[in-house]
Amino acid sequence: MTTTSNYRQADYPIEPSFLNRWSPRAFTGETISETELLTILEAGRWAPSAYNSQPWRFVYALRGTEQWDRIFPILNEFNQGWAKSASALVILVSKTHFAAPGATEEALSYSHSFDTGAAWGSIAHQAQLLGFQAHGMTGIHFDKAIEILGIPEGYRVEAAAAIGRLGDKTQLPDFLQARETPSPRRPLAEVAFNGTFIAG
């Protein structure tokens, strides 16, 4: 038995909310309260991480604020074109070093980006559960993010995310309207292998 939802079908029965989460570009432009956004980020705070090092950091801005005006130029021109209608922007940053239990000095964390990705997944899922959607992107000016946000050495800018309520796709250019639908996934058999890795 499989799960079907949101024009998608899973190979195995899973919680439908995973199928209902997707990455639209059309948002309504309505505001989100800081409490709602912090509730979404709270889910990211509870993600798993190596040694419980919790390397993730979230810099956020609500639309219509001076913080939004500071963070918005970090997006590249293409992403600015659609993300201008989002309710909030989040820049995801990871701390690259940590002190392992029993260590006196910090060392490079092999999994800082992986762990921050786990936090992002939780954020995107929680946004969907609250009636929002979140669209992650690496189409940003990383050097500008470091400068604007004052990010010191020892931290890595990973990505940005736009969060908002799903809007009418007709606000997008024609070529994006055609892509404004939940995307499929590779069959599980192409990415999960019993005991032996298969490239492809």
Structure description:
The protein is α+β, with helices and mostly antiparallel strands. Helix content is 30%, strand content 19%. The protein has seven helices and eight strands. The strands form three sheets. Strands 3-4-8-7 form a four-stranded antiparallel beta sheet, sandwiched between helices. Strands 1-2 form a two-stranded antiparallel ribbon. The protein has a two-stranded antiparallel sheet with strand order 5-6. A hairpin with a 2-residue loop joins strand 1 (4-5) and strand 2. It is globular. The mean pLDDT is 97.
List the topology elements.
Elements: E1 4-5, E2 8-9, H1 17-20, H2 34-45, E3 56-62, H3 66-71, H4 77-83, E4 88-95, E5 97-98, E6 107-108, H5 112-129, E7 133-137, H6 142-149, E8 155-164, H7 174-177
Antiparallel strand pairs: 1-2, 3-4, 4-8, 5-6, 7-8
Helix pairs in contact: 2-5
Distinctive features:
4-stranded antiparallel beta sheet; globular; 200 residues; alpha+beta
Classify the helix fraction into a percent range: 25-40%
Radius of gyration: 18 Å
Integer average pLDDT: 97
User: In which order are the strands of the major sheet placed?
Assistant: 3-4-8-7
First-to-last CA distance: 27 Å
Order of helices and strands: EEHHEHHEEEHEHEH
Largest sheet: 4 strands, antiparallel
The number of strands is 8
Gross morphology: globular
Low-confidence stretches: none
Q: Which structural class should the secondary elements be placed in?
A: alpha+beta
Strand content: 15-25%
Question: Total helix count?
Answer: 7
